[in-house]
Amino acid sequence: MNLNFLDFEQPIAELEAKIEELRYVGSDAEINISEEIARLQAKSRELTESIFSNLTPWQISQLARHPQRPYFLDYMDRIFTDFQELHGDRAFADDPAIVGGVARLDGQPVVVIGQQKGRDTQEKLRRNFGMPRPEGYRKAKRLMELAERFGLPLLTFIDTPGAYPGVGAEERGQSEAIARNLFVLSRLKTPVVCTVIGEGGSGGALAIGVGDRLLMLQYSTYSVISPEGCASILWKSADKAPEAAEAMGLTAERLKSLDLVDEVIPEPLGGAHRDVDTTAARIKSALLESLESLQAMGIDKLLDARYERLMRYGHFTE
Amino acid sequence: MNWFSKLLPSRIRTEASNKKSIPEGLWTKCAACNAVLYRAELERNLHVCPKCGHHMRMGARARLEAFLDPEPREEIGAEVAPRDVLKFKDLKKYKDRLAQAQKNTEEKDALVVMTGRVKGIPLVACAFEFRFMGGSMGAVVGERFVRGVDAALESGIPLVCFSASGGARMQEALFSLMQMAKTSAALARLSRRGIPYVSVLTDPTMGGVSASLAMLGDVNIAEPGALIGFAGPRVIEQTVRETLPEGFQRSEFLLEHGAIDMIVDRRDMRDRISSLLAMLTKQPSP
After folding, report:
1. How do residues A178-234 score in pLDDT, each as one tens digit?
2. b vs e for A224-241, b when ≥16 Cβ sit within 10 Å of the residue's Cβ?
3. Angle in degrees, CA A206, A210, A213, rounded to 5
4. Strands A108-115 and A98-105, how do they pair?
């Protein structure tokens, strides 16, 4: 079993392995097997298309957390130039689970904030698996206010399993840190575009996710609780996560149909990790497009529209 | 039935269900000190144990009844009722859970909002009904809260909210998460107008409610011994794999760590809040 492929991708992994094997044979054998390789490649593509055209919400949840999924910093140099990271909440610490700073998007200065997971074990630990602590949210708040002060648009990138549930995080006011960001973002006097690039885990995601536009990568997810968490509470068993993922409707497509998300950014065949450059280019053009229309609005109109949008969330009868 | 009771003639046998000769609910036991309490007296004491001062949970209407002056009162947003757009179903249908909760609590959802007065000071007061699906916040709670904020904005009167909630309502999925943003945005508007908001955190105030409207008070007050936090103690224990310190996430712990302004006994709530609001709005002492 290839660990770089998920369960449901294993048939693709097998084909890819076969192609690799043939290539290896081909390089030292006299026989011409390029035709065979081309045939297998076409088959692999077809197989990927058919598997990916019919993914369940649970499979998409797994893709959103794929070990090879590009993280915030993988996109940084592909989307932005001149990135300068700014550190610390000025009160307690710097939280590496949230990265932020100033950068240029097509020449235009912007403030960027994103949750950052780690690739190898050491990095994962340092980044706390992308689970921010209060100081991370307070650093983010500082950068939001910096964006407002200098009139720079704010672009946030969401990718977290959730805010960190730890003793220190509670002691330092995790709840207040999240709540304060919602409060500040709701009336921040600059355009705010939020993009979910992987996992949108609950309040920990929302704390950098209130803005004028909400974009989602095709295979990212956004939910009030993880499928496992939901399953263990409502089904009394974490094994029911696939059912919970289905019931919560946490995929980009479903959330778009519920009018909770403005735009779904399509991913390359097989997911963002198969072609990071293309994914980054698509994110970039979506951001530029959003910013263009938001910047044309004028700040008062923008804030009114943001408020109206927040007030529209939720269905009820009366 | 064990062998001994089988030996007894049926006349002397007492079935467990027949044992309760006193009407149910006349007496109750304090969970903290085990004192047996007369329910009517406990209610007169606002569900605070007269022996040890333990603050028991209190329903939303009883809460507002005790907090507000008898007249005038007007409920806001009572017509707003839940709608299951996702057709959510876990082991039970959300629709059925709602119907059950509505039957048990005689409320349509988990938040009650009223305009009224406290010692003559006009205000808007909200209270969570914890017995309604754990006081969880869905679209109705969010909308009623915002209508409360709007009423406060319109009349320029303060807002007080008593929270008691397990957090966001999972059955409304991402819609419930967005209520955190919705309620916080409304509070930001209130704040900008310079209208005071007092948040009273009661047992328990957790998750999405704690991480939005409950922690955003100009003044945050907690009742004694209330469990208040973002993540539940069980989740934290599983994450850090150690036993949590005594009193972790209780009001006293939050006060010590600077998350709340004060701990107020429920029986003093009217006095303390009216005095505070009068000062914040530059009015004479109530």
Report:
1. 999 999 999 999 999 999 999 999 999 999 999 999 999 999 999 999 999 999 999
2. bbbbbbbbbbbbeeeebb
3. 125
4. antiparallel
Choose among A163, A172, A317: nearest Cβ to B81: A317
- Give dist(CA A64, CA B145) in Å, integer: 34
What's the CA gap between A159 and A273, in Å, rounded? Answer: 14
CA distance B244 to B232: 11
Closest C-alpha among B227, B232, B207, B198 to residue B55: B227
Q: DSSP state, A282?
A: H
> Residue B127 in contact with residue B112, Cβ under 8 Å?
yes
Q: How many CB atoms lie within 10 A of CB B273?
A: 24
- The residue among B230, B64, B254 whose CA lies nearest residue B160 is B64
Cβ-contact B209, B137 below 8 angstroms: yes
For the beta carbon of residue B79, count every other beta carbon within 10 angstroms: 12
Would you state the structure tokens that stand for residue A293, as one six-digit string? 């229309």
Q: Which two tokens stand for residue A47?
A: 């197989």
A303 touches chain B (CB under 8 A): no
- For A103, residues 6+ apart whose C-beta sits below 8 A from its C-beta are A76, A80, A81, A82, A83, A84, A109, A110, A112
Q: What is the pLDDT of residues A78-100, one digit of tens each?
A: 999 999 999 999 999 999 999 99
CB contact under 8 A, A186 and B258: no
Enumerate residues 6+ apart whose C-beta is below 8 A from A251. A57, A60, A221
Prediction pTM value: 0.93
Q: How far apart are CA B210 and CA B194, in angstroms?
A: 22
Strand locations in chain B (E): 27-29, 36-38, 74-76, 81-82, 111-118, 121-128, 159-165, 197-205, 219-222, 262-263
Among chain B residues, the shortest Cα distance to A250 is held by: B174
Whole-number Å distance between alpha carbons of A159 and A154? 16
Burial A87-101 (b: 16+ CB within 10 A, else e): eebeeebebbbbbbb
Q: What angle do CA A67, A138, A294 make, to 5 degrees?
A: 80
Dist. CA A272–CA A278, nearest whole Å = 8
Of A165, A186, A225, the CB nearest to B236: A165
Query: pLDDT band for position B15 (50/70/90)?
Result: low
Q: Which two tokens stand for residue A72?
A: 């915030």
Which residues 6+ apart lie within 8 Å of A169 measured at CB?
Answer: A133, A134, A163, B230, B231
Query: What is d(CA A140, CA A181) in angstroms, rounded to the nearest whole number?
Result: 8
Contact A170, B231 (CB under 8 A): yes
Q: Tell which residue, B142, B169, B148, has the closest CA to residue B160.
A: B148
The verdict on a CB contact (< 8 Å) between A178 and B79 is no
